[in-house]
Amino acid sequence: MINHTRKQTVHVFDVDGTITGSDSFIILLRYFMPSLFTRLGAWLRVTPVLIKCIFIGDLSQTKLALLSQIWKGQAKEDIYQRCQLFFNQQMKADLRLSAFKYIMELKDKQPDQKIILLSASCREWLAPLADFFAAGLICTELQYDHQQRFTGEFATPNCKGKEKLRRLLNQYPASEYEFVCYGNSPGDKKLRSISKEFYYRYF
Fold it and tell me: Would you place residue 54 in the very low, low, confident or very high pLDDT band (cuts 50, 70, 90)?
């Protein structure tokens, strides 16, 4: 028997450089390390990690090393509260106006369709953005210990390239959903293979 059940459409948006004007991680570093001297010191301390990451072609451990300098050992609740302030004071202003209008019109005209933010950035500073759009969020997760303090490690692989595709399909099986995807980087092109429609650097 043929299953004629209609698939639900999911609109999947990359964040950094797609709906924001710049990389939210870079803005985050400037926010939490406002002193240029502090930022330079942080980059110098992670230089060995950076060189190794460049050699293997994966910069995720550099991101983790920098985040560890800012937050390692801090309570999860405190980090989330500070990231909410970061969103309100910095990240919201970096949203592309065209992307903002597009998403709001999409929600207004097609309220039955799901909107998902899919990003290599971390939940800590993307959760306020997802809440702002009332959207789902699939992203890189940081690890917390039994006392809910940041361990300095990832809880999941960096959500980029093939990992984006894997995480999306794990939560939204292609047998039940069809995808309209929006991205801006070569890694986002992995989503083209599952997309009913794919928009590259659309905004």
Answer: low
